[in-house]
Amino acid sequence: MTNRQPAPAAVPHSPSTAGGTPAVPAARTADPRPTAPVELDYHGRKHRRAMDDASLRDMARRIPTALAQTARLAWSVDRRMTITILLCQLLSGLGTAVMLTAVSKALPHLATSDARTGLRAAWPSLAVAVAAMATGAGMWILADWATRRLNPKIASAADLTLVDLHMRAELSAYDTHGFTDRSQAAETGALRAVDLADDAKTLTNGLVQLVSAATVLTSLHPLLLGVLLLSVVPRGLGGVIAARIDYRVHDRTVSARTVRGMMRWWLTTSELADELRANTMRPYLHAWYRTMCDRVEGRELEGARPYLLVTLLAASLAGLFTFGMWAALAALALSGAMSTAIAGTAIVASQTAGRALNSIVRYGAVMFHHGLYLSDYHAFVDEVRSMTTARGTVQAKAPQQIRLCEAEFTYPEKEAPALHPITLTLNRGEVVALVGENGAGKSTLIRMLTGLTVPTGGTVRWDDTDLATADAESVWQHVGLVPQKNGHWPLRARENITLGQPREHSDDRIWDAATRVGMTEALEGLPHQLDTLLARSVWGGHELSGGQWQRLACARAMYREPAVLVLDEPTSEMDARGEHLIFRKLREMAPDRITVVVTHRLDNVRMADRVIVLEKGLIREEGTFDALVTTEGSLLGELYALSQDR
Ligand SMILES: Nc1ncnc2c1ncn2[C@@H]1O[C@H](COP(=O)(O)OP(=O)(O)OP(=O)(O)O)[C@@H](O)[C@H]1O
Q1: Closest Cα to atom 29 of ligand 1
Q2: Cβ–ligand 1 contact at 436 (below 6 Å)
Q3: Whose CA is nearest to atom 6 of ligand 1?
Q4: What distance in Å separates the CA atoms of residue 456 and residue 470, rounded to the nearest whole number?
Q5: Measured between alpha carbons, how far is 208 from 210 in angstroms, rounded to an integer?
Q6: According to the CATH classification, is domain 56-385 in 3.90.1530.10?
Q7: What residues contact residue 457 under an 8 Å CB cut-off, 6+ apart?
Q8: CATH 1.20.1560.10, the chain: domain bounds
Q9: In what order do the strands lie in the sheet with 401-409?
Q10: Phi-psi region of 36 (alpha: psi -120 to 50; beta: other; left: phi over 0)
């Protein structure tokens, strides 16, 4: 698809004013013509054509696996309900068999010329047939109830497993090729696991019903089994083809629907409401969204015609074969090869079997497709399980010293290292500032110091403990980190400070941390002080400003009283007073810990005991601010001069 850019709107030539001051350009009023949204596809969706490519045999082979996976999942969350469903299925099938047998017993009596006598003789069998039907229906309702109890548990278990694994994975897992796509596919699998329980129930019920009907028919007359198959085959084939058309439409629209869904969030969230309005983005975005709706709608409409044709053809063929079967039964009955009663039973049984086969085909196709996603889920779970942070069992202690010895780091699937071999020692009581241009490797170095990643070469030691062999959780117990992007956790103000720490009865330490970052007044002014929910979009929530969120992130790290305090651009959104306060407090707290600060505001670097200047993954300079800034040709001197040149 070509992706033409819209022709730039003509900007009226703006003449200079008489005094030579350039005039403000006139505002553009014409709606911009939208670029057609690009066609997207997801690498993780490796089953895109699976439904098209699969033969009937493939499908039949895949379904037992999906059934077994679903049963395992169900068994792991609620054994009682799983057993209930299985028993109900069996009893429901038994009910069908009893009903058909009873009907075959009742029919000969009903076929007699004297209706009253016939009815009297047939009623016990009829009563058994009715009771069996009622039992079957009751079992179905019970199985439905059990599935409803099972579904939320399956959904929570699958979701919890995924979320927990994401939180326990090594950071490098996120950098492996296609991780996000596979994660998305696994999420789809987790969502579909719930549908699978329903599908599996309907499919197995269909199977049990079909086996019951076929068994009764064969016992009545062996020929009837063949006749039955003939009547149900067109319906089965039609069902499979219709399901394929359905899924082709689904597949062809899934990317557009996903992108539209993502865009929908951006268009409706309050977070972007200012930008969207003030920059007059609405006309373009409206047109973009409309184009996506049209794209999805168009493809769905394309599928409607073939779907209708296939269903019509299948229904006509099924009707024809059913008519043929009835004609054959009539011929057999007339020729005396089969009694009228057995022929009547065959008709009832074929109706039951037809309905059962419909379920099998329909839900078999659905299970096949959902099963593919479930296998994505299992594959992803296995993959991430092997990537969880299980480095070693050595329990790390609060360090006096952090020593990097030829430590280097290359991100997965990257050729060039982000950090070349570095040798460095950081001491307790010291404040170290990391400085360097964008991409120099500062955040990467921080991750290595704090054991968030292990070096791909060399070692990082906390005193005598090599972080590559230490239990990661024991390392992080001693870390307080303010990352560049910190969480605006939709929790109460209290938890936003204490998050990650054991609960305490008193709020004293929380207020202490708030004072250190100058947030006392702001927190006291909240509608419910520390109990205020910090999430504007949720009813009763309250939103903070960008700088206030950053102060909270600093309070969170300081509250931990960590042995290793690391702050990556902690004051980028703060006002001068906040910034001054934070750096003063960092100095006050410094004696008991190793403090590392990354900042681009070089005036703040003065407070550090030592400045480390990184360039392209290497330490270029190291020393005090004053010494470095006055050194001829130093990078820090150059960057500082630039920051002062306004
Ligand atoms: N997750 C990642 N996967 C692959 N490469 C990465 C990843 N994170 C960073 N890099 C690369 O590693 C190099 C160092 O990045 P890093 O984030 O450490 O720089 P930085 O000095 O912190 O930059 P900034 O000042 O912009 O925050 C960059 O070239 C960057 O593109």
Answers
A1: 439
A2: yes
A3: 411
A4: 16
A5: 5
A6: no
A7: 406, 407, 408, 409, 421
A8: 56-385
A9: 419-427, 401-409, 457-462, 465-466
A10: beta
Nearest Cα to 146, choosing from 80, 63, 243? 80
3-state secondary structure of 490: coil
- The ipTM, to two decimals, is 0.97
Rounded to two decimals, the pTM is 0.73
Q: Give 10-residue mean pLDDT values along the chain (646 residues).
A: 37 42 56 61 52 65 81 90 91 86 80 74 88 90 90 90 91 83 82 80 85 81 73 71 74 77 86 81 87 88 87 83 79 81 78 78 76 82 84 90 95 89 94 93 94 93 93 92 86 88 84 92 90 76 87 92 92 86 90 92 88 94 91 88 82
Measured in Å, residue 469 CA sits from the centre of ligand 1 at 25
Q: How many CA atoms lie within 13 A of 333 on its CB side?
A: 17
Q: Where are the beta strands (DSSP E) in 550-623?
A: 564-568, 594-598, 610-615, 618-623
Residue having the nearest C-alpha atom to atom 12 of ligand 1: 418
Ligand 1 and 440: CB distance under 6 A:
yes
Residue 478 exposure: Cα atoms within 13 Å on the Cβ side: 25
Range list of H helices, 28-55: 50-53
User: How many angstroms separate the Cα of 431 from the Cα of each of 374, 563, 607?
Assistant: 50, 12, 8
Atom of ligand 1 nearest to the CA of 447: 18
Query: Which candidate, 534, 591, 508, 573, places its Cα nearest to that of 582?
Result: 573
Task: Out of 171, 176, 179, 442, give the residue to mutate to test ligand 1, the one with the largest number of ligand atoms within 8 Å of its CB.
Answer: 442
**Which long-range contacts link 29-36 to residues 24+ away (Cβ below 8 Å)?**
31/283, 31/284, 31/287, 32/6, 32/283, 32/284, 33/6, 33/7, 33/287, 34/6, 34/284, 34/287, 34/288, 34/291, 35/3, 35/4, 35/5, 35/6, 35/288, 36/1, 36/3, 36/4, 36/291
Q: Could you please state the CATH topology (level 3) that the domain comprising 401-644 is classified under.
A: Rossmann fold (3.40.50)
**For ligand 1, is residue 442 a contact (CB within 6 Å)?**
yes
Domain with CATH 3.40.50.300 in the chain: 401-644
C-alpha–C-alpha distance, residues 517 and 548, integer Å? 9
Q: What is the CA(283)–ligand 1 centre distance, in A?
A: 36
**Nearest protein CA to atom 27 of ligand 1, as residue:** 438
Query: Helix 340-385 to helix 79-110 angle, to the nearest 10 degrees?
Result: 170
3-state helix, strand, coil in the chain (%, to 5): 60, 10, 30
Distance in Å from the first CA to the final CA of the chain: 47
